[in-house]
Design brief:
Layout: E1 6-11, H1 18-32, E2 37-40, H2 49-59, E3 69-71, E4 89-92, E5 95-97, E6 101-105, E7 111-115, E8 118-119, E9 129-130, H3 132-143, E10 153-156, H4 180-189, E11 193-196, E12 203-204, E13 223-226, E14 239-244, H5 252-255, H6 271-276, E15 372-375, E16 379-383, E17 393-397, H7 409-428, E18 431-439, E19 447-453, H8 459-472, E20 478-480, E21 496-500, E22 506-510, H9 519-525, H10 545-559
Helix pairs in contact: 3-4
Length: 568
């Protein structure tokens, strides 16, 4: 099946910035290898003299696109002149206009449905607009086939109306964003990936189901991704890279796998409504009004022992499994005494206690207190033993919690305060703040926070290094949409790896069987980033107690202006 995998890039509105786009693509391919296809949604052409001059270089063959590029038609009247035929044609070498609407099927079997332009609001429809007839002509031949399960990719310029329902919210005005006709089109075609643009925003919706649980047979999930315009001043994401195996080449059991963060279908209200919509399904859909939270898949079902492995880690505390378990200590703060477990409501809630020895609980006798940098009410900061850099630290809960997703709300709040303080601290030193957590073969949450000098590499390089090195080990890191809580994706008991970049971008991997314990360190220590590969394993970076005390003293003094705990 690996031979069937295609590497695809998708881009938002190019708006005539052809050199910016193709130079970026060349850079990506130089670092990550060749991609098979570039898909462009939204406005491909610009309206300025500069963009016209750039296009002439590609049209005449003076310049050539570095990858086979497929584009949608005009999304505005001003750019209609660049599309000589509604049926699609070659615009320049390696640049193909797909057409007004249709289905493109590649030699690999990859099926791409597309609709160019915007929804027509008048008759006759302008040349850059589509009509209900266009949508019916696209949908009917597909859904009338008894073997139709959906398409691999759907390309539209406009967003589907209400796609954010039951999911994470986009940074757009939802009152006037998108059209119901595109929403109904997506509902009927069931694309595995649906791309759109024209709103000037980047938005990656949580994946959603194409079936009703317990009422219909399981089907594949759909992902909607909206992309910003090329080289936008806000530096919003405009390129999206992904691997895809054509649906026709996949085993049904593999195709219908449901990710942990899947939601209900945003375009459907109920099974009854679905039956009442008629055969085409292209009538305008009413706006959903019920709270999105009610429709999330019940991720907590089965409790903490419900994950793979039948309750991994429950009652089996194994300190020897800790891949990087530096011991330290700190003064007791906010800890109850022995026997203080009667649960009287007037007593403050005690942090969870370990069932055996723990290397990270602040009150534990096993730890070395000289490594503690700062102590808050619910969390504390400590120097990482054998750190990648002198100011590599850990943020840890004072109470015994195994992972971020199990933290009480007040602990999450204070952990975020520490992260924000570290961001400011590292920024003052000309460094980026990169944090990661490995909830696997560990019994107490350790949020690793590593500073990376700004002049070493860009955030995009760090992200790419994690994605590439994960891919080399047959692991697929998933980008978590902005403003999405990790708890929606990883219920308690789920083994996972999670990294947060200085821009707030988050990458997540659901650990299946085995996972390299030093993965986070290995990526950051690699030649492409910090270029200290010998420090990938903390055990190779041990210091004497005197050296550790000196490092801690230096870090405490440097961090003091940013330490909110000293203000309490």
């Amino acid at each position: 099946m690996g031979d069937q995998t295609l590497r695809v890039l998708t881009c938002g509105d190019v708006q005539g910035k052809f050199n910016d786009l193709f130079n970026r693509v060349r850079t990506i391919q130089k670092k990550s290898g060749q991609f098979d296809l570039l898909l462009c949604v939204g406005d491909f052409f610009g309206k300025t003299e500069e963009s016209e001059a750039e296009w002439q270089e590609y049209k005449t063959g003076a310049k050539k696109a570095p990858i086979h590029t497929c584009v949608l038609g005009a999304a505005s009247q001003a750019t209609v002149k660049h599309f000589p035929s509604a049926d699609g044609c070659e615009l320049a070498e390696n640049i193909t206009y797909l057409g007004r609407r249709g289905v493109f099927t590649g030699a690999s079997g990859l099926q791409i449905a597309y609709v160019s332009g915007r929804e027509a609001l008048q008759e006759p429809a302008p040349a850059h607009c589509f009509t209900p007839k266009d949508l019916l002509a696209l949908v009917a031949p597909l859904v009338n086939n008894s073997k139709f399960r959906g398409v691999d990719i759907l390309l539209t310029s406009q967003w589907p109306r209400g796609v954010w329902q039951f999911g994470n919210n986009p940074e757009v005005n939802t009152k006037c964003c998108g059209t119901a006709s595109v929403a109904n089109l997506a509902d009927k075609l069931k694309p595995r990936y649906h791309f759109a643009a024209v709103e000037g925003a980047h938005y990656e919706r949580l994946p959603y189901r194409n079936h009703m649980v317990l009422q219909e047979n399981a089907q594949h999930v759909s992902r909607f991704i909206a992309l910003a315009s090329v080289s936008n001043p806000a530096k919003k994401k405009y390129l999206y890279a992904f691997n895809i195996v054509p649906m026709k080449s996949m085993e049904p059991s593999e195709l219908i796998k449901q990710p942990q963060d899947v939601t209900e279908n945003p375009y459907r209200r109920s099974g009854k409504e679905k039956l009442q919509r008629g055969k085409t399904g292209l009538d305008p859909a009413e706006e959903e009004e019920e709270p999105a939270a009610q429709f999330f898949f019940d991720l907590s079902r089965g409790g903490r022992g419900g994950g793979r492995g039948g309750g991994r880690g429950q009652g089996r505390k194994r300190p020897s499994d800790e891949g990087d378990r530096p011991p330290w200590d700190g003064e007791r703060r906010g800890q109850g005494g022995p026997g203080d477990t009667d649960g009287q409501p007037r007593q403050p809630r005690r942090p969870p206690q370990p069932t055996g020895p723990c290397w990270f609980c602040l009150a534990s006798p096993q730890v070395e207190k000289h490594l503690v940098i700062s102590i808050g009410t619910h969390c504390y900061l400590a120097l990482a033993k054998g750190g990648l850099t002198p100011f590599h630290v850990l943020v840890l809960p004072i109470g015994h919690y195994q992972s971020v997703v199990e933290l009480a709300s007040e602990v999450v709040e204070e952990m975020d305060k520490y992260k924000a303080a570290l961001h400011k601290f590292y920024k003052s030193r000309g460094e980026r703040c990169i944090s990661f957590e490995r909830n696997y073969r560990s019994q107490h949450l350790q949020l690793q926070v590593v500073p990376v000098p700004l002049d070493k590499c860009a955030t995009e390089d760090i992200k790419e290094a994690f994605m590439v090195q994960a891919g080399e080990q047959q692991m697929e890191l998933m980008e978590i949409p902005e403003h999405t809580d990790l708890k929606q994706i990883a219920p308690p008991g789920t083994p996972y790896f999670y990294v947060e970049l200085d821009t707030g971008e988050k990458l997540y991997y659901r650990i299946q069987k085995h996972f390299p314990l030093q993965f986070g360190r290995e990526v950051l220590a690699s030649e492409a980033l910090l270029n200290i590969p010998a420090r990938a394993d903390w055990k190779e970076c041990k210091q004497t107690r005197e050296e550790e005390e000196q490092c801690c003293a230096t870090l405490r003094d440097a961090f003091k202006p940013f330490d909110f705990a000293l203000e309490d």
